[in-house]
Amino acid sequence: MKNSNISQKAGFFILFLCMFITLFFLGVLLYFIISKGINAISWEFLTSAPSGGMTEGGVAPAIVGTIYLTFGAIVFSLPLGLACAIYLTEYTPDNLVTNILRISINNLAGVPSVVFGLFGLAVFVKYLGFGVSILSGSLTLGILILPGIISASREALTSIPQSFREASLALGATRWQTIRKIVLPASLPGILTGVILSIGRAAGETAPILFTAAVFYMKGYPNSVFSEAMALPYHIYGLMMEGTFPEKQSQIAYGCALILLLMVLLISAIAIYFRQRQRRIYNGK
Amino acid sequence: MKQKIKEEIYRCIFAVLAFSSLVFLVGITLTLLTQGLPLFREVSFMNFLAGTDWYPTYDPPDFGALPLIASSAFVTLGAMFVCVPLGIGSALYMNEIAGYRQKSFLKPLVEILAGIPSVIYGFFGMVAVAPLIQRIFNLPTGLTALTGSLVLGIMATPTVASLAEDALSFVPNSFREASLAVGANRWQTLVKVVMPSAGSGISTAVILGISRAIGETMTVLMVTGGSAVIPRSFFQPVRPMTSTIASEMGEAVFGQLHYNSLFALGLVLFFTTLFFNIIAEYISSRYRLKLGMGR
């Protein structure tokens, strides 16, 4: 009897230790980047372009580039992902076709990000001739976040009680009317959550834009979807790996890392807060 | 009548768009094949997979990918030693020990941490972990397989924890109650009842973690140093497949063998992760059936 109590205490302690170590590592990471990055950030850092051979100035073009790329990715993949989710939940029963689609979505989600980059390079940059551009990068990122958008939208759509649909259909509304007027409005918060999470994901991805959109330095700001762009995550990489003045550049890299980190953390915190609230409403907790 | 046609049109639009992910998956496969296979006109498949020299820019070039494949395996294996115990331990803690309040704080926190971009982990590895490793083990450089494994492991931990926690939450409470009712304490219940019944769900989480770690690019690109030799110890620089693709694509000329060889590496990477994902998929669908759930 006593033995089993001791082993329970020991076991629980080990599990607590695992949890603690996990959070500790991540706490160290956050502390490191925040404490060192905060010195680099100023109003000028956020609003001016790099100067002095990437050793001075700010990172405004990289911030702008990241916003363009992320926005483009969402514009491309939201309609596609939403349509796919609507088809899977509203139009088809579980059958072979939906099974194949489900498996292909899961597997697309597991494709390494650098392989998306290869695909984007071969298809958008070379074959379709978009060149290294915001368009190529956005499309590549869009395909990368597509599985996430589909899964989040499906979760949102399936959480709508079946009785909502039945009530609407019983009143004589068609299937499309039911979807547009009843199902979509009710599932909107859930879908938005998925979109916000995807924004965070797209903003931080580096490998897919390495060969499709990003440049380390450009003059001025991108002025069309066919221009190249600077991007925050690529800028961090560039400053660390391609720099000629590591000392001065790593300071800027700290600043970039902090901006990117705050952007992504804020975005995903908002999304996860909404999702928790949403789940609580539907689970009645 | 007009309404009916409209309905049918909408249905068709959705049906066509729904196939987009399948189209992209097939498209990625075809692209990798058409761009990667030309390599094997010049280099035999066996020489590519088993060759030990990777000198793509030499004259004549060598395209032996074994060092790169071995590096990927090495770093991933190392990362597993970090993220499997920590991830599963954290998941068990969140689901079995933490109270409702604590859990509703921990789980979102872990999910948020899982969303930190890999380039930030890479950066952290370069500026914080690498110098530490260099000093502790007295090495010529801190950018080693060990650094890569550690950083990759830390990075994958929240993902594994989150997935494993999902698997644990699928175990019906009646299982736990039955075990406690016959006099087992909470630890015995956890080890003898909860873990075995969530076993396949947890292994799915681990397999997905492995597949993510193999495909991870930026972290390993920044912290593993990048020398293309077959790794013999954790204290030397290595060059996994992903970082080879990312760092060499810039200098590879479109349509030449080097370019093709990087797509061939992508092909190896793609099929490896696909293999792991399909296994995970298979296990998880059986697991769900076992616990009496639908898909």
CATH class of the largest domain in chain B: Mainly Alpha
CATH architectural group of chain A: Orthogonal Bundle
Unreliable stretches of chain B (pLDDT < 50, length at least 5) are none
The biggest sheet of chain A amounts to:
2 strands, antiparallel
DSSP strand count of chain A = 2
Order of helices and strands of chain B: HHHHEEHHHHHHHHH
Total number of helices of chain B: 13
> pLDDT average of chain A, as an integer?
87
Q: How many domain units of chain B?
A: 2
What does it look like?
The complex is a heterodimer of chains A (285) and B (295). Chain A has one domain (43-283): MetI-like (MetI-like fold, Orthogonal Bundle). Chain A has eleven helices and two strands. Chain A has helices spanning 2-37, 43-47, 60-91, 96-110, 113-127, 134-158, 162-170, 175-204, 207-210, 232-241, 246-283, and strands spanning 50-51, 56-57. A two-stranded antiparallel sheet of chain A has the order 1-2. In chain A, strand 1 and strand 2 (56-57) form a beta hairpin. The mean pLDDT of chain A is 87. In chain B, helix 2 packs antiparallel against helix 13 (257-290) and helix 8 (145-169) packs across helix 10 (186-215). Chain B is an all-alpha fold and 295 residues long. Chain B has helices at 2-18, 20-36, 39-42, 45-50, 66-97, 100-114, 118-137, 145-169, 173-181, 186-215, 218-223, 241-248, 257-290, and strands spanning 54-55, 62-63. In chain B, strand 1 (54-55) and strand 2 form a beta hairpin. Chains A and B meet through helix 1, helix 3, helix 4, helix 5 and helix 6 of A and helix 1, helix 2, helix 5, helix 6 and helix 7 of B.
